[in-house]
Specification:
single chain; 119 residues; alpha+beta; Alpha-Beta Plaits; three-stranded antiparallel beta sheet; 50% helix; 16% strand; globular
Length: 119
């Protein structure tokens, strides 16, 4: 089993991802959605919650910041052979590119101008 996650800035994108996962046949019991207003009361508690879900500290911090600013985190637990497809569904629906976002944070907007980064 694998867990694939995607952070969405817009509710409509997250909703589209959930619909696409359902069309693909992913059961609702395999999907977890975390949004601002859920049981998270602070950035610290959000990071702790994501660490308990098995995320690395760096990923937990990234997702917690995204949720605290109003994003939607969708995590899907699936068989390993479906990981690539589910990752594609989340990206196709508009999930934030974590690596590009980190580079933008580190290097500023010049990174986007000098690369083919998907953001």
């Amino acid at each position: 089993m694998s867990t694939v996650s995607g952070l969405f800035d817009r509710y409509s994108d997250a909703e589209w991802a959930l619909e696409a996962l359902g069309i693909y046949g992913v059961d609702n019991g395999q999907i977890s959605v975390v949004a601002r207003g859920s049981k998270i009361v602070s950035l610290k508690s959000a990071v702790e919650q994501f660490l308990e879900m098995g995320f690395t500290e760096e990923d937990a911090m990234f997702y917690a910041e995204g949720v605290k600013r109003g994003g939607f985190l969708i995590s899907v637990t699936i068989d390993s052979e479906d990981e690539y497809l589910v990752r594609g569904i989340l990206r196709g629906a508009g999930a934030v590119d974590m690596n590009a976002s980190r580079k933008i944070k580190q290097y500023g907007s010049a990174y986007v101008l000098n690369s083919n980064a998907y953001v």
